[in-house]
Structures are given as C-alpha cells and as structure tokens.
Amino acid sequence: MSAPIPAPPSWVPPVETTAPMAFPPAPSGDDVRGGRWLRKLEFAGHALDRLVHRMLPPESNPFSQIGAVANTCLLIALASGILLLFWYSPSVHQAWQSLESMRAGSFLGSLARSVHRYSSDACVLFVLLHAVRMFLARRFAGPRWLAWATGVALLALVWAIGWSGYWLVWDVRAQHAALGSAKFVDRLPILAEPMSRSFVTNESVPSLLFFVIFFSHMLGPLGLGIGLWIHLQRVNRARLLAPRTLALWITGSLVVLSVLAPATSAPAADMLARTERFSMDWWYLWPLVLTDRLGGGLLWLLFLGAGSAVTAIPWWLVRKPRRAPLAEPSPAPRAASVDLKRCFGCTLCAKDCPFNAITMVPRADDRNFTVQSLVDPDLCVACGVCVGSCDSEAIELAPFATRDLARTLRHWIESDAAAGKPSFAALLCAGSAGGALRSDAQGRCDALPGYRTMQVPCVGWISAVLLERTLEHGALGVLVAGCPEGDPNCREGTRWFRQRLEGTREPSFDPRKADRSRVRFVQHDAAQPGRLVAAAAAFRAGTALTAPFVPSAPRRWLGALALATVLCGTTWVGSRLPYRTQHDADPVLVVSFNHGGERLSQHAMSPEEAAKRLPHMRSKANLTRERVPVRIRVTVDGKIVHEASHAPKGLSHDGPSLALERFPVAAGTHGVAVELGDAAGKEFNRRWAGNLEFTNNRIRAVLFDTKSGFTVH
C-alpha cells in the first residue's frame, strides 16, 4: 500500500479541465435553468438534515420524509373532522353557536376541533416544504412531471378544502372568505343572480349554499385520495404514511398544542358589519389579502397565471437537449435499455427499480427463459439502480455504458500497477459530495490524489461485479461516495447498494472473490466535498472507518421535543397572525335590486318583416320578449350620488336587471331616497325615501325585488 497521505485541512476547489472526458458526466441539474442556484439553495436543506441527524436517527427525521408526514397530518385532520360531526350543526343560522356551545360544554369536542385545525395547518406546512424540497432538488423534470403537476393540483385542493372549512364556522373570517369567493364566482356566467347579492344582509345568505359548501368540504378528501393515488403512480414502494414512532410524535404534539392553545372562533358573521382587523389562519386564508383589494377579473388572471406557471415548471424551466448537427451523432437517450442476449429473466431489476419503469414480459426470442425485462423510457429517470441489479450486465444506461466504463477503469488501475504506483478507485455519486469534484480525461482529481475517479448517476448503479473486478485488477481499494440517509437523490439506490455490499440483497458482493474491507462506503451530501476529501485521505492512510454517529437516548428525547416545539410553534403562529382589512371606519350605504322591467310593446309587422319569417310565423303583430332597462337614482341629503341604467340579463334581454352599488357615507343621520324606473319612459315610477342613521363600521342596505318591494336593513 502507498504511503499515507494526511487529510487536507480544507477542501481545495479542483482545477477544471477542458480535456475530453473519458466517461460522460453524471446529470447534475445543469439541464435546468438556474440549476446551479437551485443546487446552492438546496444546501440549506442538507444543513437542516445534518442538524436533525445530530439529534435523531434518519428514520425519525420528518424533513427526509415530508410527503409521508403531510399525509399523516391529513389523516389526523380527517379523523378529527369526522369526530366533530357529533357536535357541529351544518346550518348557517346555527353553525357558529354550535361551535361556541361545544367549546364551553365539551372538552373532547373542543380538543377535536383544535386538533382538526392544527393538523390541517400542519398538512399545508409540510406540503409546502415538500414542494420546495422537490423544486430545489430539481425533481420535476422528465418522467417526474406527473408527480409535480399532480402535486400542485393536490396543494390547490388541500387549500380549497381548508378555505371551505372556514366557511363552515360562519364567523368574521368566514364572512370575508364568502365575500372573496363571490368575487371569483361573479365573473363566471353560471349564476342567474350575482353571488355577492346573497351576502348583503344576514337574512339574504341562502341556507342551500351553506349546505353545498358543507357537502363539498366532506367530499374533498375523496378527491385527495384519488389525486394522491395518481401522484404516486410512478413511484415504487412509496412511503404513504410516517413510521409509527414519528406518527405518534406528530399526533402527540398536535394534541399538546391543542390543549395549550385551543382553536377558537372569531365573532359571529354579521354581513352589515365592517371589520377592520382580526386574527386569521394564514395557512388557508392568505388569499383574503388579494380578494379584499382586487376585482374578480384581476383575481382570475392572477391565480390562473400563477397556477399555470407553477404547474408548467417541468416544461419551461427544463432546457431542451441541444440538437446535434447533421455531421454529429444524435445524443444517446437518457433511459435504460435491455440487451436481450444477456437477459436471464431474473426479475431483480424490476424489483429494485424505484420508479416502476421496468416490467417483466413474455420472452420475445427463442432462448430458454420465460420472461424478459422491458424498460418504459417514459417512466425511466436514468437513476441506474437497475444496472447495479444485473449481474449479467444486460441493462445499460446511456451514456453510462457499464462494460465500457469498467474497461476504462481496469485500464487505469492496471497502468498504475504496471508503473509501480498502484492507485485507489473512487466511484462518486453525482448527487452527493462527489458531484462537486472534477476529474481530467484520465480520471485524476486534484482533490483526491492517488485515486482514479469516475462519477456515476447513483451508487445503486454500481454492481457487486464491478467492485470485485476492480479489486482483482490491482486497485488498492475502492471508495464509494453516496448520498446520506434520509432522502437520497435516487430514492432507494443507497439502500440497495449497502445491502448488496453487506450480502443481504442479490446480487451481493462475494467475499471469496475480493476483500470486503478494501471497499469503503461513505455518505456525504453535496454541500460537504471537504468531508469527502478527508474521508478519501483517511482511506488511503489505512485509518479505520469511523462508526456512524448514534445519538443517545436523552439527546433523542431532547431533539424530538425541540423539533416538535419548533414545528408546532410555526403552525400555531401561522394560524394566529393578525390581519388588517382594506376597510376604514366610515359607514357604507348599499343599494341593490333584482327586478325585471316592462316588456317592449308589440307593433304591427311590416311586409318586409313578414317576408323574412316562415309562413306559420307570420302574425299580424311582432311579439317580443325583450324588457326595458331598469334605471336607478340614489339621493343622499338631496344630492344625487348615483344614477345609472341596468340592462336586462339573458341572451334575448328578457331577464331581470340586477344592481349592487356601495356608497361611503359620513356617520350621522341622512335623508336617503332610492328611485327605480322600469317603464319605457324616463320617469321613476318606484320610490323609497326616509331618514337612516349611519354609524361607524356598519352598513345600511336598501334592497328591492319584485315580490317584496323595498326593504331597509
């Protein structure tokens, strides 16, 4: 063995080379616009993982299984929501009071409500963290587009369920949510009467609409289940829920938070009141900032534009492959392929594939095997895990041709041995700390002296046969650098490689062919190239591998309590922050009507008009369904503040005319007159006049409809 080389005090950035590579570089995210910046931001997530792993084992780290934690919170919210039905009354007139009675008279009911609130908030928190982590890790390109697009849809659906849930409390928050929703709905030509008119007074709120919201809130989780099934379609052995210990910690933390800070309602909804400020749940009600200040058209443009841009990230943020000139060969496809002559139908590749990209199908040749591997290129993410599963080297991952790279590595190792300078080999996962190191065309890296290095897409790509042959050909040792435990770049690649190396998974490393102690597997994330350099130097020096750090029981308990406190505190703060509306204290006069004008008068049909109609439609008079517009004039203290004409609704202009107008008025008593004209003339034939007292933060409404006439609120 060569003389020991001490570990460098700090990592020295490698010298970039312009020489052609003897093997292709692993995918690094540079095919994504802004990939280098995303990779740097991803380092923050790696640092968070390292901090948590100083206190908790990887299997208890919620940040390495965020999706499963979000699903666990969703399940808790679903169970507590069903329990709430024992106390809740789904009626616009009784909803708020039923929750208040439950809070005062039932500890279990109040606890269920608080757990329902906080688990729903925690679900959104972890869904957002999951989305951010996937984005920074660039796990949205290629076959992963379906998971990204459905993930965005699931986030929108979770938010919509929570938004509708706040309606059901029917407090001040629900009042603003209802008014904001009406701005959206009123821009769509689906309702005969604007939804906003239903929220002018307390009496005008329709009970049927409230029940529809309640029913949609109950059916929402069914849509989530279907969406989650689609979301995980391309993932093999997906972790749906958090492990039992972590799930118990999540449940216990939510219960403790619910006991210490019970969820409460805001004051009851009053459609004639103008609230200037209140506390709200920003996890779900943040759109109030926009709906309280923008019009319906701009809201649709903003939300549809932002939603489309986020959903389309896999297409507009990913660079398309450069088209090669005609004189150059086309770039090889980045998907695994099967060499049928070498495939024995062992099924190991299909079992190990993390993304359901390989299936076993009936044999297509005349060899004496019943099945063969079939790779779906639309599902393959080019992780290379299947390559490491195949002892016969029947699967290749372009451009990482196993046999070609093995020959290159063998040539390097034998050349060094022949020159009297035997070297080590280093196989570096591109998603780990090894991805930051650069080598020349001969596999030499300034940061790893004494090594011949190769980057691979994942350590799962490395087969036991490659390790055995590399050692047999004279390598002093093989250093394998992979991603840390938790959330590796290619999911199960690190786990399968470790099990193959330990002999617990086929194809396993054969200790009869090579010395297992001459293979060292280290795991460092992409932000720790210095640790990898030090580990490589220690391996060359013959230093024993340091045992992995295992936190003690007291440290685990303290770490779990600290992490639960931070996450619960974040959830609680987000649900209690204050919000100031755009309203001022000045009172408002609301005038609204739903009334159809008179129909236009009939007239004698001229010969020209009769000639344009079929014989059986030629009557003496031209009958019309069209109505005249309804005119309105509003006067305050003898001064006209509004005068307009409202056309009838409908394609034939035969529907009622609708209006909803708001006017700021100074506090005090004012003389108000509202006049309507529904005849063909210019006169106003319907009138209401009287003195109204206006107080700050209150609304006075004068309404008119055909059946009831004028009503004052």
Give the % helix. 25-40%
What fraction of the residues are assigned to beta strands by DSSP? 15-25%
User: Helix count, per DSSP?
Assistant: 20
Low-confidence stretches: 1-29, 326-332
- For the record, give the distance between the C-alpha atoms at the N and C termini, rounded to a whole number: 94 Å
CATH superfamily of the largest domain: Cytochrome Bc1 Complex, Chain C
CATH arch. level architecture of the largest domain:
Up-down Bundle
CATH class term of the largest domain: Mainly Alpha
Count of individual domains: 3
Strand order of the largest sheet: 7-6-8-9
Radius of gyration: 35 Å
Oligomeric nature of the chains: single chain
Sheet having the most strands:
4 strands, parallel
Mean pLDDT: 88
Structural class: alpha+beta
CATH topology (fold) name of the largest domain: Cytochrome Bc1 Complex, Chain C
Shape: elongated
- Strand tally is 20
How would you portray this structure in words?
It is a single chain. The chain is an alpha+beta fold. The chain has 3 domains: 56-316, Cytochrome Bc1 Complex, Chain C; 336-540, no CATH class; 588-712, Immunoglobulin-like (Sandwich), CATH 2.60.40. The chain has 20 helices and 20 strands. The strands form 7 sheets. A 4-stranded parallel sheet has the order 7-6-8-9, with helices on both faces. A 4-stranded mixed sheet has the order 16-11-19-20, with no helix packed on it. It has a 4-stranded antiparallel sheet with strand order 15-14-17-18, with no helix packed on it. Helix 2 (66-84) runs antiparallel to helix 4, helix 4 runs antiparallel to helix 5 (145-167) and helix 6 crosses helix 11. The N and C termini lie far apart (94 Å). The model is unreliable at 1-29 and 326-332 (pLDDT under 50).
